[in-house]
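=== RUN LOG ===
request id: a7f3
mode: sequence -> structure
chains: 1
length: 311
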Amino acid sequence: MNRCTCPLASVSRHRILRAGLIRASLFALGSVLGWGVGGASAQVSDRCPVLAEPLFRVLPAQTPCLLLAGHQDAVELPAVSPGRAFLYSALLPGLGQRKLGKGRWLAYLAVEGAAWIAFGQARRSATDERGQYQDLAWEVARSFDGPRVDGDFPYYETMEKFLTSGAFDTDLAASGIQPEMDRSTFNGWAWSLATEIHFPPGASPGRGDPEYEAALGDYRARAYDERFEWSWAGQSAALTNYMDLIDSSDGSFRRASQFLGVVIANHLLSGIDAFVTSRIQGSGRNQVEAGLRLIPMDDRKGLGLVLQVRH
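=== RESULT ===
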């Protein structure tokens, strides 16, 4: 039998242990770099078969396998942090999901587009109908001969509650303002309210008295002057049409507000979904199911946006 001679044969056990550690380190490095067990062992040649067995007795073969197991169980960090994912989707719904590789980004984008389209249509319808009832009021009920001046929304609401405004100044020839006294008209109601507020009970202050002047100042603030006076007398059909246009316009404005609420909710829910998804991916659980749906509210006058996430 041939005898193998090796310069390491006389090396002390301490030297053998150090050599074994070096060999195991190279083996583990090869495992991390993806060489595999065979590749790592091929990198270190056995110059002496007599010493191969003692080396693995010093460092058992399963030691590199523990390092391999740790490498296989490593979890990759998400490509997008939770905070950044939330910001992406809060600014543009679906963007965070798209960057996280989730196909539901299309649903958020579709809801965003549909809600903006519906908002635009409702807003345009409300604006058109507002113009129609303002035109109708000017052409039929209002009596001012000067340039047209449109009022605010409370003014047009008042026009459907009172058949006539009454005169702001009942005697233009007299000095000062002579308030309307007919309480069935809006201006008459405004003067009655002013006297109830400022006149002492049972008293009738005259012009120049502090109480009268205070009531007159209140009247000026509440009553409509000649630029806004109106009368629907003998125009019942036009008044009905006017009231219908106001109701329709109000409804369209409410729908526009609801769709704008859907847009805001879509931004918020998409951001929350992206944040949760990124957190779940970061924890190593990549199976996330999410659903987004619109549901009518209990009173049937609004829409709700519901996000369901399961993992």
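=== NOTES ===
The longest strand covers residues 289-296.
Strands lie at 289-296, 303-310.
=== END ===
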